[in-house]
Write a structure and sequence with these properties.
Rossmann fold, binds S-adenosyl-L-homocysteine
């Protein structure tokens, strides 16, 4: 490739990255005001980038739960994206994973995981497996993770990546996550990573008492809603504004 073509390719790449609409938050400022330092070109480049991601994108923006920070510093995010996106794997943005879907920005993965208040004995349901990255982060913390993906090719690829990385506590099924996965209910936490217009009732039904659901709700403009189910009622709290891909519905109830 000559220099001119390479520049055009780089420019197109940047435009595509800047225009990705989904799974991104309107971010709180980086409180330290520090510039992200350049990574060393050493062999452990990805590990270094991951550590920087945890410090500058997560800790500095207020993620405090050490279990979440540890999980995010362990999961090799670059293994979940296509080869051509690997160099961007730890950047502060969502990335394409094929089939017009995206892997969420690291901050959003951490924010949702922290909001779900997951502990080591928990059984967690994720809707929207995508490439399997969020499932892996959940799998680092929870006892068992069930994840549903509606696009069969993505479900198959996520299954393969997760098994190659040795996650034995994550099960992925192909299907419509709106209906949940009643066989394994109730769940201590439910994380939804595609945005429905309203909170699916089957998911509320499948949430355990004292469980939490973290879910982006809305159409073009969405908010992450944190829903807590108590013995008596369901409490919903709108939190940060986000843009996720819409929840796909095959048949509407
Ligand atoms: N959590 C994913 C990213 C989510 S992108 C990750 O870490 O990579 C949203 C995903 O939700 C997409 O893969 C999309 O295909 C899936 N999705 C959309 N509607 C769905 C539905 N009704 N049921 C299950 N998955 C759905």
């Amino acid at each position: 490739m000559n220099f001119g073509l390479a520049s055009i390719a780089l420019l197109l790449c940047c435009i595509l990255l800047m225009s990705l609409p989904s799974c991104a938050a309107e971010l709180p400022p980086n409180s330290s005001g520090l510039q992200r330092p350049k990574s060393s070109p050493a062999m452990k480049q990805f590990e270094l980038e991951r550590r920087e991601m945890v410090d500058y994108q997560l800790r500095d923006r207020g993620i405090q739960d050490e279990r979440v920070l540890t999980a995010m510093s362990k999961v090799p995010r670059h293994q979940f994206v296509g080869l051509s996106w690997r160099d961007f794997a730890y950047s502060d943005r969502p990335l394409p994973i094929g089939h017009q879907q995206t892997i969420s920005q690291p901050y959003i993965v951490a924010y949702m995981t922290e909001a779900a208040k997951i502990s080591t004995e928990d059984k967690v349901l994720e809707i929207g497996t995508g490439c399997g990255y969020q499932a892996a982060v959940l799998g680092e913390i929870a006892k068992q993770v069930y994840s549903i993906e509606i696009i069969p090719q993505l479900a198959a690829r996520a299954r393969q990546t997760l098994s190659q990385l040795g996650y034995e506590n994550i099960e992925v099924k192909t299907g419509d996550g709106y209906q949940g996965w009643s066989e394994h209910a109730p769940y201590d936490a439910i994380i939804v990573t595609a945005a429905p217009k309203h909170i699916p009732q089957p998911l509320i039904d499948q949430l355990a008492t004292n469980g939490k659901m973290v879910i982006p709700v809305g159409t073009w403009y969405q908010d992450i809603v944190v829903l807590t189910k108590t013995q008596e009622r369901v409490v919903k709290k709108k939190t940060i504004p986000v843009r996720f891909v819409p929840m796909i519905r095959k048949s509407r109830p």
